[in-house]
Amino acid sequence: MKNIKIWDVLIFVLSAELAGAVSALIAGGDFGAYYETLVKPPLAPPAWLFPVMWAVLYALMGISAYLINESGGELRRPALILYLAQLFANLLWSPVFFGLRSFGGAVAVVIAMLVLVVCMVLVFGRIRRCAALLNIPYVIWTAFAAYLTIGFCVLN
């Protein structure tokens, strides 16, 4: 195994975290206050849990992307393109849901995001199993986010 380049890992992690921060900035407003006004589907978590979960998931995404970047091989480029595509879809969700308050639009974004994340994990798995496994919590959380988004769309 190659030596881990800690600065490169940090760049990948911080760039993923930055995507989440940019998403929040674009969406603007007080997410928690708006979230509390919504009729929530069953199992909807408290507002404070979302930023905690996303911080952890972005870190895992960044680490997995670093592992793929260091792997080389013919699938590396398509895998990183999928990574960037899902990260872009992820970046869009908050501005659509919170900024535009478009539940239907948010459903479309989260479904696209879920498909991209699953495809990314499958391709990552063909390159480095560990990189794919690091994203399993992300797949689960994104599926849960899709459930919640559809629930918000139906109930509100």
Descriptors:
Ferritin; mainly alpha; single chain; 156 residues
In short:
This protein is mainly alpha-helical. It has helices at 6-27, 31-37, 49-71, 76-99, 103-127, 129-133, 136-155. Helices cover 81% and strands 0% of the residues.
Question: What features would you describe in this structure?
Answer:
The structure is a single chain. With 156 residues, this protein is an all-alpha fold. It has a single domain, classed as TspO/MBR protein (Ferritin, Up-down Bundle). The protein is built from 7 helices and no strands. It has helices at 6-27, 31-37, 49-71, 76-99, 103-127, 129-133, 136-155. Helix 3 (49-71) packs antiparallel against helix 4. The protein is elongated. The chain starts with 5 loop residues before the first helix and ends with a helix. The model has no long low-confidence stretch (mean pLDDT 96).
Show the helix and strand layout:
Layout: H1 6-27, H2 31-37, H3 49-71, H4 76-99, H5 103-127, H6 129-133, H7 136-155
